[in-house]
Amino acid sequence: MRRLIEEIGPFTLKAKARRSPFESLARAIAYQQLHDKAAESILKRFMALCPGRRFPRPDELLAMNVRVIRKAGFSRPKIMALRDLALKTLDGTVPTGRMLKQLEDEAIIKRLIEVRGIGRWTVEMLLIFQLGRPDVLPAHDFGIRNGFRIGYRRTTMPTPQQVFQHGERWKPFRTAAAWYLWRAADREKRAMKVL
After folding, report:
1. DSSP code per residue over 118-153
2. Stated pTM of the model
3. Which of 5, 111, 181, 195 is deepest in the core (most CB within 10 A)?
4. Which residues are catalytic?
């Protein structure tokens, strides 16, 4: 890890706290299994369904006709996930941003994975990129595992459990370690494009 830090430079991750948990999770659902450009296009059409707003509210999403959301580009399973997210936001299962700040990471994960289409990885991304939590290691993430392989000069891909076990030594700064592992994977990807 020391070598990666020296090669990559300072840790520059900044959390994007201005989004509500509803918006962050809805965006995450949009991006699942899609290329970034396709997801951005779908989100732009979806957001246009509520002119004058930066992002639709849960009650507005529930009032929308399913065909209209489908026309924006969401698949039926993603629409079901979005509707469940909206319902669980309204009933309090999905905490407000203020409430999230008071909850421990595992408590947040436990609550949010109750939402259809939201798994542990999605919540870990919220913890890192929205809440700026300092000690999150998404060991199942391919980029993290690949960065670990590259950074530790392994010939085979480590298992999530191997990354998690090794990551215990990075506590309480596993988010920074994850960021450096992602940078290592990105750096190799860019180098491969040059070849």
Report:
1. --HHHHHHHHHHTT--SS---TT-HHHHHHHHHHTT
2. 0.85
3. 181
4. 141
